[in-house]
Amino acid sequence: MAEKPTPRFALWPLLVVMAVLLLVQYYVAGQRLNTLSYSEFRRLVEIKGVDNLEISTDTISGQLLPAGVEFLAKSRNEPDLPERLKKQFDKEPTFSTVRLEDPDLVKTLDQQGIKYRGVQEKTWLTSLMSWVLPTLFLVAIWVYFFRKIGAGGAGGLMTVGKSKAKVYVQDETKETFKDVAGVEEAEEELKEIIEFLQNPAKFQVLGGKLPKGVLLVGPPGTGKTLLARAVAGEAGVPFLSLTGSDFVEMFVGVGAARVRDLFAQAQEKAPCIIFIDELDAVGKARGLSPLGGPEERENTLNQLLSEMDGFDTRKGVIIMAATNRPEILDPALIRPGRFDRHILVDRPSLKGREDILTIHTRKIKLSPQVTLKTLAARTPGMVGSDLANIVNEAALLAARKNKSQVEMDDFEEAIDRVVAGLEKRNRLMNPREKEIVAYHETGHALVAEALPTTDKVHRVSIIPRGIGSLGYTMQLPTEDRYLMTKSELEDRMAVLMGGRVAEELHFQEISTGAQNDLYRATDIARSMVREYGMSEQLGPMTFERERRPLFLETMLPPGAKDYSEATAQEIDREVNTLVAKAHRRAREVLEQQLPVLEKAAKILLEKEVLEGDELRQILNAAAKPETV
After folding, report:
1. From 421's CA, which of 9, 246, 264, 345 has a CA 20 to 30 Å away?
2. What's the confidence (pLDDT) of residue 31?
3. How far apart are CA 512 and CA 284, in angstroms?
4. Which residue in the list 278, 298, 393, 441 is annotated as catalytic?
5. pTM given for the model
């Protein structure tokens, strides 16, 4: 577990206290005595309108009798005064007045039979109530705020320079290499780090120096953070974890201060591991900002570079970081002597996916028919987070159906939900649109089955899924692939054009359903010409200047062209030629299999889902010669 959360400063308790004090003051002020002029007091004494007087050095107070109240109402011309005083006081109304030098006062009181007594002025108590207590109250408020914004208050203004790293001690870091799968090569590289943290003398005797920094590079979801935590768990050392954005603050100099504090904490807890996730948030190459002058982020990066040069690895402090955008990191950060060991945490292989599924299904009640190897083959290109999501979705689907075990059908449906989106059976299509979608998807499937280098069809469906998908054709590769040949790219474009061609052949017109297919086919053709040098006219040249993220599927904004307008026109012609060729190949395939297209599309209309084996049975039946 992480450290206890830092208590936040709340202003509302102070506001409540001040409001209560104001209410008390108002209430007490409301109960104060009615202030009379001395002339009114003397007149009330003469008519015996007061009684029970308390005479002090400076004031005279007492009770107003009914006769006195009536007198005041008439003299002040306030007819409602008796009623107001009756509502204000539970007992007889009271009053006070300032005492003047009046030698005849006591004699007059005796003549009227008014009770009176002297009161000694408590000057020390009055002074305490008037200025000592308010002063103490203000001092208490000042101390309260000072602790909140001072160096002694956690989370205060003066603590913005403190590192936000979450510290996990040995007993709190539960992950080990038993919880990690699919990254065997990365594990082997990191075992040396573990051995150094456990037995540093082994390396120091020979004079060897361990790398100061280890950079984990890989696509999102491959388990970089989990791998770093597993290293700490295996080594049994404290683990300081934070993200690159934790260094960023609105105040200038805060990022650099947090870097200094982070390394100071690490030196105190050595041997330990510092892990910075999303390093690109703070380690982006300097000078890329359109704004002039130094930036706060660059100051933070400079401080990080300085600290990495300054600390000694012999104390057992290892810095690990993770990023999925290594191409934008500052060269000074990843040079030897800083993050000098780069470990690729790539997408898992078929065996790796099977091992990952084994880990995530340890606590899942699986049916004996569930084969993890088959599921691994059905999830090419997926990373650990995707597989964990599929296992969780399958368990939820089985629970929704009140099953006692998670079956293979649940995993199949979970994969479809993750890959194609949520099934939307309530989205009703008219018969015409449903027929168009059926022929469109059947066209994809038949072209995929006919061409030599394409992946085999696993399932064809016309059930709407996701946001805008009205159907899909799912293909599964028979093995993991890392390279694509020119013929494979051309076959893939032909498969994408198969849906549009099927609509042309059956309906003699086209629909908007091929928009995404055309986009993907055009993108493949443009990449073949501009990036891969697969154009016969332009030759082995690349025209792709802008740098793309290595592991993210997003595109960076296009940069300036470094080729002529004539070359741009030639590129467009070559792209058009490749797309037209793919369209022509798809048409040739479907024209030869037009009866199969009609038959398979009608079956798909009836069943809504057509498995790959059923499609191949239809193809095999059509290929057999009729016997008399």
Report:
1. 345
2. 46
3. 42
4. 441
5. 0.67
